[in-house]
Amino acid sequence: MEKIMxxxxxxxxxxxxxxRLSKTLKIPVYHLDRYFWKPNWQMxxxxxxxxxxxxxxxxxxxxxxxxxxxxxxxxxxxxxxxVFIDLPRVVCFYRVFKRxxxxxxxxxxxxxxxxxxxxxxxxxKYIWRYPIDKKxxxxxxxxxxxxxxxxxxxxxxxxxxxxxxxC
Length: 167
Hints:
The chain is an alpha/beta fold. Helix content is 50%, strand content 16%. It contains seven helices and seven strands; from the N terminus they run βαβαββαβαβααβα. Strand 3 and strand 4 form a beta hairpin. The N and C termini lie close together (9 Å).
C-alpha cells in the first residue's frame, strides 16, 4: 500500500481515517477539500482541480482523501489500494453535526484556510442522497478494478479499527 485513495460519504470519517493511516504507514495524506476550495467556500474551477489532482497522483506515495467524482477515474487508475468507508447515513449526519458544533467559526485542519465550518441544506441533501447517487457509481468503478487493486469496504467502526490496527 503506497497509493491509497479513501472515499465515502461526507461525515463517514474519511479525513480522520486518512490521518491515522498516514501516521501508521508514514505516507503523506492529501485532503482534496483542502486543495480544491478557495477561501469563503469558493470552489476552484475544474482545470485548476485537475492540475492539482494530477500533481498529487504523480507522487510516489500518497493517501488521498475525498470524492470529487469528475476526477475519480484518474485516482482509481493511479491507486494501488482503495478504501471505501461506508457508514450509515445516521452516523454521517451525527458526525457532520458534531463536527459543526466542535468547529463552528473555525476552519478544520483538512479544509482550506478561510472555509469556516458551516452547514447548508445542499450539504445535508448530498449526504442523504450519497447512497443513492454516488455509492453505486463508486462501487461499480471499484468492482471493475477488483482484480488489479486492493479494495477494502469498511462498513462499521469495528472494521475501521481492525483495518487501522492491522496496517
